[in-house]
């Protein structure tokens, strides 16, 4: 699994590299100290995952994420953040980031997050999700129109996706196999023009399909 680290703080980069270099099956194939370098390294190395700091000189992590995603790269972007950067994190998710992690994340959780992101699933730090969606999302006519194009079964799948549930969890709730869930998920993401499950979570809250504090 190939990983790039983009952060202008050398101590952060050194710490992340030490953790990743000690993990079998993970290789750090590049580093970047600004967004321009991040985009260039991704274009050159085609990593599975890039760990992207939000605040970097010359070009920030949000714009770098947007350029990577809009350029058609299959690289998954994991945003590195600290408390107090909620608005920036949400902007990065809208730009196409596959998830976000706090910079003081436990090493084992970091490894797990990279593996999860590499296989196309969402990585959302639970302690930040509720605050993000409560502050920065609101229903929109555009998102509601997109969701209305889904079939009844696809809307069920989307609702579970927007709550961050895995294929196995969705299958258990709907009494269908994980393979069937996977087919539905791919169709839903394609119909809604979403890159991955993280964007489904964002759209779910923006559209009002999922409301913080409600389970139905």
Automatic annotation (TrEMBL):
Instruction: Please indicate if the UniProt record lists Phosphoprotein as a keyword.
Output: yes
Cited SUPFAM superfamilies: CheY-like
Keywords from UniProt, A to Z, are:
DNA-binding, Phosphoprotein, Transcription, Transcription regulation
MF term (GO), any: DNA binding
Q: What range(s) does the Response regulatory domain occupy?
A: 2-118
Q: Which SMART domains match?
A: HTH_LUXR (SM00421), REC (SM00448)
This chain belongs to the protein called: DNA-binding response regulator
Q: Source species, please?
A: Micromonospora sonchi
Q: What lineage is this protein's organism placed in?
A: Bacteria, Bacillati, Actinomycetota, Actinomycetes, Micromonosporales
């Amino acid at each position: 699994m190939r990983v790039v680290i983009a952060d202008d703080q050398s101590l952060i980069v050194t710490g992340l590299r030490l953790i990743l270099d000690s993990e079998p099956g993970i290789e750090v194939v590049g580093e970047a100290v600004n967004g321009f370098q991040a985009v260039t390294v991704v274009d050159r190395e085609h990593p599975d995952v890039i760990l992207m700091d939000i605040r970097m000189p010359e070009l920030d992590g949000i714009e770098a994420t947007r350029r990577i995603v809009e350029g058609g790269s299959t690289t998954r972007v994991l945003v590195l953040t600290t408390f107090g950067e909620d608005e920036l994190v949400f902007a990065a998710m809208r730009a196409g980031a596959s998830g976000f992690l706090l910079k003081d994340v436990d090493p084992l959780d970091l490894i797990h997050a990279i593996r999860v992101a590499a296989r196309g699933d969402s990585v959302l730090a639970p302690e930040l999700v509720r605050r993000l969606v409560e502050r920065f999302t609101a229903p929109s006519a555009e998102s509601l129109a997109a969701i209305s194009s889904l079939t009844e079964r696809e809307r069920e799948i989307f609702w579970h996706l927007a709550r961050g549930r895995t294929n196995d969890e969705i299958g258990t709730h709907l009494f269908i196999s994980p393979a069937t869930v996977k087919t539905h998920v791919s169709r839903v993401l394609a119909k809604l023009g979403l890159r991955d499950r993280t964007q489904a979570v964002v759209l779910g809250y923006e559209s009002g399909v999922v409301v913080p504090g409600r389970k139905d």
